[in-house]
Amino acid sequence: MSYVDGFLIALPKANIEAYRKMAELGREVWMSHGALAYAECLADDVSYGELTSFPRAVQAKEDETVVFSWIVYRDRAHRDDVNSKVMNDPRMAGAMNDAPFDGKRMIFGGFEMVVES
């Protein structure tokens, strides 16, 4: 079964274009090092729930939207290998220093797929 890294962030709406450029670089770098798929998605039909929701999870403010993204790998070992190469890729130097979002509110983690098609 495949392995997935998932990410959830609050993105200031004013920074959507800057984020798109950063995401395009991310796609280029991860895919060049062997990732199987790379996706970055802006919230479209995401309500602010009473107890739980995507916006609540990242403490999204009125002027922010939610980004949901993921990267797919063959398995955990493949993910670790790809990420090691990505972190050493000169194209990524300083990428998080200039991130157009608050990295302290980013939620991320690795997931083993249990159902896949």
Mean pLDDT, to the nearest integer, reads 95
How many distinct beta strands?
A: 4
Any low-confidence stretches, pLDDT <50, length ≥5?
none
Corresponding CATH architecture: 2-Layer Sandwich
**Tertiary shape:** globular
Q: What string gives the helices and strands in order?
A: EHEHEHE
What would you call the quaternary organization? single chain
Based on CA atoms alone, the radius of gyration comes out at: 15 Å
In what order do the strands lie side by side in the largest sheet? Answer: 2-3-1-4
What name is given to the CATH topology? Answer: Alpha-Beta Plaits
Counting structural domains, the number is 1
Main beta-sheet strand count, sense and barrel state: 4 strands, antiparallel
**What is the CA-CA span between the terminal residues?**
10 Å
Helical content band: 25-40%
| Helix-strand category | alpha+beta
Overall CATH class: Alpha Beta
Number of helices: 3
How does this structure look, described?
The radius of gyration is 15 Å and the shape is globular. Strands 2-3-1-4 form a 4-stranded antiparallel β-sheet. The protein has 3 helices and 4 strands. The N and C termini lie close together (10 Å). The chain has 117 residues and is of the alpha+beta class. It has a single domain, classed as Alpha-Beta Plaits, CATH 3.30.70.
